[in-house]
Write a structure and sequence with these properties.
Layout lengths: L1 E2 L5 H9 L5 E4 L4 E4 L3 H4 L6 E4 L2 H6 L3 E2 L5 H9 L1
Parallel strand pairs: 3-5
Antiparallel strand pairs: 1-4, 2-3, 2-4
């Protein structure tokens, strides 16, 4: 997990371009989703984190976004 406030914009763009970081999350709400999610783009920089995989996000205690990752979100609800 990488916090947005701990990385420069140039480094962040490079990691996304190289597909090292593939998901974003909200630290406060403990929700993760795709980088192009409309909900994710609205969050404050201080709350934004990035993940290499869904497994990493779930291990950190995050749940899938109900907007951009509906199938994963519904699986979480059915547990």
């Amino acid at each position: 997990m990488i916090r947005h406030v701990d990385i420069s914009d140039a480094e962040l763009r490079q990691l996304i371009k190289e597909k090292i970081l593939v998901l974003g999350g909200n630290m406060r709400l403990k929700i993760y989703g795709r980088l192009d999610c409309k909900s994710g783009r609205r969050m404050k920089r201080k709350n934004r984190v990035f993940f290499c995989s869904a497994a990493e996000a779930m291990q950190a205690g995050f749940r899938a976004c109900g907007h951009c990752m509906k199938a994963e979100y519904l699986k979480h609800l059915l547990r």
